[in-house]
Amino acid sequence: MPDEDELRRRLRDDEPVGSIDLDAVLRRSRARRRPRVAAAALVSSLAVLGIVVPVSISLASPGAGTLSAGSAASSPDFGEAPDAAQGGATGPHFIKRAPADKINLCTGTLAFVAPADDGLALTVQPVDAQAGARDIPVTVTLSNNGTQRVTGSISPFPALTLSRDGVVLWHSNGPVPSLAQEIDLSPGASTTLTGTLQPVSCGVQDDSQESFRTDLPNLAPGQYQLSAALDFSPTESGAAGHDAAVLVTGPTSPVTLH
Prior knowledge:
8-stranded mixed sheet; 3-stranded antiparallel sheet; 11 strands; alpha+beta; Immunoglobulin-like; 2 helices; elongated; single chain
């Protein structure tokens, strides 16, 4: 098909034009001009309106998605920024656990705690008392069931938890003297601690106060379970240099109220 230059040449040479498809030539000529005209019109319009259009450059490779500027912040492939409260991007995600007297709260589920790696464990002497009694003495034994000598310090006031069917009914509460008792236990050795039990039922609101209400309802006669927990600080701190306090617990023991 003759192009526009060929058409002009034939016309200049007085060649017959019957064999020339004028419509096709004009359509092709317009098609070549149309992108240039549209681009020029767009640039002129934006210049008049004072609009600055950012250019987004996309990089694509076979078999990969397209990544454009600004997509990393919202793309699920990049995830969210780490929370600074959990250690952030500069260190491990250490999570500070609750102290021994806060692992079991009123009306909550009795917490299950794995045995301590160093072999320390607590056992509570069974209790047999009258319903309605107060300040019932409890004997708690801290034993080294491991194979290595254990040295460090503990609070001499173990946290007690009274429960039934896995639900916390009462736990140790109120101010506790800031005392530390040094221990040095060889494998198989033990030491004795004491605590006080109140056979009453506490509520959620009691855990928001410094100490429980004085008029808590008495528990009915029946069978209950009592367990103990304490924080142990070994003589040598952890390799990471953070708080190396170990939570020591043990099995529940029966409490019989008559």
